[in-house]
Design goal:
By secondary structure, the protein is of the alpha+beta class. It is built from 3 helices and 9 strands, in the order H-H-E-E-E-E-E-E-E-E-E-H. The chain has a 7-stranded antiparallel beta sheet, with helices on one face. It has a two-stranded antiparallel ribbon with strand order 1-2. A hairpin with a 7-residue loop joins strand 4 and strand 5. It starts with 5 loop residues before the first helix and ends with a helix.
Length: 175
């Protein structure tokens, strides 16, 4: 059995380390020279954005007005829609708008501190006739600020109702 001194063992480890680094540099250099890539090509943002079309403003002739009893917001809703539930979760009062039975509801979050879930999303400025500040994300989530309240309108669980949500947001009044 071969016994090496501590200095000799360290020297052998150093030689193996240098050898490993040289091999790694050669592999990386060869990959770059041969233009090889092991990463997936990025998706063109333009192609994603092109698929997102602006929603249509619907006629509200037969829509029904809803005045929230707890917060100063008044909305117009399609006649067959209902307020499915109002509830509170930490930091938010939540209205759930039910378009049809057994459909995912659209939600409106009300807070005095922030919009619901918009912190990390890329949003665009958005205004309505009754707001001074607002944002929108892909025409599925809208945030409206009025006085001390932040209202977040969310159809991301039910994107088939983008036009309805857009129109509801346009009808929002703050009283």
């Amino acid at each position: 059995m071969l016994h090496l001194s501590k200095q000799s063992s360290s020297f052998v480890l150093l030689i193996f380390g240098v050898f490993a680094i040289v091999i790694a540099v050669m592999i990386i250099s060869w990959t770059i020279q041969n233009n090889l890539s092991y990463t997936q090509a990025p998706i063109e943002p333009k192609s994603i954005i092109a698929q997102i079309t602006e929603p249509q403003l619907l006629s509200t002739e037969d829509w029904v007005d809803y005045q929230d009893p707890n917060y100063p917001i008044k909305l117009s809703l399609p006649p067959n829609w209902a307020i499915a539930e109002t509830k509170t979760i930490p930091g938010y009062y939540v209205l759930e708008l039910e378009p049809e039975p057994k459909q995912q509801p659209l939600q409106i979050f009300v807070s005095q501190t922030t919009f619901a879930g918009l912190a990390e999303l890329p949003f665009r400025d958005f205004r309505t006739p009754h707001t001074t500040y607002g944002v929108q994300v892909d025409y599925q989530i809208y945030g409206l600020k009025h006085d001390s309240y932040y209202y977040t309108f969310d159809s991301s669980l039910n994107p088939n109702y983008r036009d309805e949500l857009y129109t509801i947001v346009q009808t929002a009044q703050f009283k």
